[in-house]
Amino acid sequence: MTDLSDSAKLLIDDKEINLDVYTGVEGERSIDITSLYKDHGLTTYDPSLGNTAICRSSITYIDGERGVLRYRGIPIEQFDRPCPNFIEVAWALIFGRLPDEEELEQFREMLTENELLHEGLKNQFMTLPVDAPPMAILSAMISMMACYHKEFLLLEDEKILMGAAARLISKVRTIAAFTYRRAAGLPFIYPHPGLRYCANFLHMMFSLPYRQFEVSEEMEDALNLLLILHADHEQNCSASAVRVVCSAQANLFASCSAGVNALWGPLHGGANVKVMEMLDGIYRGGYKPEECIEAAKDHNNPFRLFGFGHRVYRNYDPRAKILKTACDRLFAKMKKADPLLDIARKLEELALKDPYFVDRKLYPNVDFYSGILFRAMGIPTNMFTVMFAMGRLPGWIAQWKEQHFADGAKIIRPRQLYVGNPKSNYLEMEKR
Ligand code: SDX
What is the pTM for the complete model shown? Predict the structure, then answer.
């Protein structure tokens, strides 16, 4: 139980209601209203839940004012170097600490053993339209995994959960690569047992039967970093969707499929596609960044500066900062440039000086630069949100596990403020 630190008083109808106050590890405080309706018939009104803690969690910590992000207490900046890799971060998010060599090797072997799709699942995959939205394919396929892996519908111990996590993390990579290959009219390339997670993905995406794709170290490092930076982000929209579905005691596949669908939205993970379309539109249209900044400020103009702003960060998203330097690093090593990166930088420079953005504390978020890196790897724009989902999957699994095994966890069922018709009567058709 988080420290019960002090109490708060709520005065209403000349009544004084005492409420407990909990203090989190970083000093953040939360007023306990869990019995407000039962004892006093009152609810609180917070439609987007931006002021409401829906759980206790020890997975990820964000300080939006200071631009702080930590996975299991480790500052995100410490993952910005070659040695950490996505799989060890995934293990740490799910199981609560960094794995030792043996645990990491064991998990890697489970990933390798579970790279292939069940032939029945693959046949289902082949019935989907070739040009279907990749996020629709991903959410359908994750949901359908429940049909082919019934042994994971009930996860009551960590060993079985580790097996389900390995299947999901490994097969989502295969589904993503196969989705791209099928849309491109290319044969499926199966995982190479000698390659690590990120290198294998690029191999499955870009190798040809007669020519194995040489995965450069800088590409593999860049993809590791991208997936690590997307791995979790506390109670974001898609993680909360996973928790809500999980709270009904739905299985892990159903919950993660819900997470994919929430992430798809352009205000959430779908923003990385919108950012790329925005930058590409500016480039092809020959628009000036100054014009775009003015358009983004005009509420009568539908143009929005995608990749800017955040529900929690009221400072620079630390992930965007890391990705911005990662772009320079990769392009320097590849000896290439991207005009869209120049446009992104100019937009950022103008916005960070403009009172409209400064006053509203709108800074670049994780989606602003991520697409530039995905594009540099040759990944098509319509696959960007699938890449976000591949990265976020360990975070969803970790959030699901925490919700599923939480002491006293109840089904998540918010209340409402009713503003509809007062009591009325059914009218026969002739009286309407
Ligand atoms: C992700 O929650 C997470 O952790 C998410 C995420 C994760 O890792 O899971 O970090 C991933 O989803 C990042 C966000 C990606 N979305 C975008 O980049 C879409 C563009 N950004 C916005 O739509 C917006 O900033 C949100 C949705 C991200 C946040 O919305 P808020 O906090 O509800 O802010 P708001 O919509 O109430 O806007 C406040 C003001 C408004 O102006 P006023 O009414 O005060 O005059 O800021 C303006 C908005 O119009 N504004 C923008 C803007 N974002 C907000 N104006 C222009 N361009 C923008 N991008």
Answer: 0.96
